[in-house]
Specification:
It contains 8 helices and 16 strands. By secondary structure, it is an alpha/beta fold. It has 2 domains: 44-291, Alpha-Beta Barrel (TIM Barrel), CATH 3.20.20.70; 293-332, no CATH class. The strands form 4 sheets. An 8-stranded mixed beta sheet has the order 6-7-8-9-10-11-12-13. A 3-stranded antiparallel beta sheet has the order 1-2-3, with no helix packed on it. A hairpin with a 2-residue loop joins strand 1 and strand 2. The radius of gyration is 20 Å and the shape is globular.
């Protein structure tokens, strides 16, 4: 494993900013990276928590081959410590990967081809922690003309990040809040590495990028925090990256928190639009108006959605608006 460093009789994992330094037999924070014989190995390689065919909109990706299907999979574990984790039964379990079926990268790609599914998503838990499994799958997929998508918190070191996103076609990065205090308190991590990943993807790769911020009332939804996030987005990645504000549902150690009210999402969306962002959506609620894509030129609806369903697509095959011929940013 090349992303490691030997320190006396221990080995440091260099995949993510935690840099877990492990003794023989010790697991990292993520539970699935372990020191075996002095090397950090992925104990969950090929161990799959389930394959599912999803609408691409569920990732969520609204500007990446809309109305298409995507083959989704993940493993166990996570390098984030989010107290509000929505998939905690997968990310926080201490069940051993040995209990899972083995599905090789080649098999995943073959299933995609056999079922005429044009994209594969690394999701459910963060592909940062199952880096080798995701990367091997992405390399084979690229050879076969299958697109790959990473759904990630973006908490990753610079060098493996560069190798990984060389093979990734689309990404949704979960920007969990816009304060280091929020990240330290509620995610047991830091904000800066996430921002570095977002900037890297947008400014130094060809990977299509979208961002999701799940709003938790009283934690990361204040006007000051949202304005700071929007200012940063405009200054660093521009006004064309789609931004999704999604609703929180009480889970894990935030089980006593209140679910996000739709009005909170609507206000955040209106604020982002007032800042000049062109594509802003609400998620985890059903609202046709706030999940529809509007042409940035003529303002007419070009992709009408109801939940994850696309009701209308008023773009030509190249992504041009049928009303004014202006281009809609994304992959089509």
């Amino acid at each position: 494993m090349k992303y490691q460093k030997k320190i006396n009789n221990k080995t440091k994992c260099l995949i993510c900013p935690r840099e877990c330094t492990l003794s023989e037999g010790q697991e990292g924070f993520c539970h699935i990276r372990k020191n075996v014989g002095g090397d950090i190995i992925l104990t969950a390689y090929g161990k799959n928590t389930g394959l599912s065919v999803d609408p691409i909109e569920k990732k969520p990706l609204y500007h990446f081959y809309p109305n298409s299907k995507i083959l989704s999979f993940g493993t166990y574990g996570c390098n984030m410590g989010c107290l509000f984790c929505q998939n905690f039964h997968i990310t926080k379990t201490k069940q051993t990967p040995d209990s899972l079926p083995f599905i090789s990268p080649q098999t995943i790609v073959d299933l995609s081809i056999k079922n005429n599914i044009k994209s594969i998503a690394f999701t459910y838990n963060d592909p940062v922690v199952f880096f080798e499994y995701a990367l091997d799958t992405a390399k084979i997929a690229k050879e076969e003309g299958i697109k790959t998508v990473a759904v990630s918190a973006g908490y990753m070191q610079q060098t493996p990040r560069k190798e990984f996103y060389k093979y990734i076609d689309g990404a949704n990065i979960d920007l969990k809040g816009f304060s280091d205090e929020f990240y330290k308190k509620n995610c047991l991590s830091r904000l800066t590495p996430v921002l570095d990943t977002i900037k890297y993807i947008k400014n130094e790769t060809d990977t299509h990028l979208e961002i999701t911020t799940m709003l938790i009332e009283g934690e990361n939804d204040s006007d000051d925090i949202l304005k700071a996030e929007l200012d940063w987005i405009l200054d660093n990645i521009g006004d064309l990256v789609p931004l999704h504000f999604s609703a929180f549902t009480p889970r894990y150690k935030f089980i006593k928190k209140s679910a996000t009210k739709p009005e909170t999402l609507y206000m955040a969306r209106e604020l982002a639009l007032s800042f000049g962002l062109k594509y802003v959506y609400t998620g985890n609620i059903i609202n046709k108006e706030t999940s529809t894509t509007y042409c940035k030129h003529c303002k007419k609806p070009v992709i009408v959605r109801d939940g994850y369903r696309v009701l209308e697509c008023n773009l030509d095959k190249n992504g041009a608006c049928i009303y004014c011929n202006g281009m809609c940013d994304g992959r089509y």
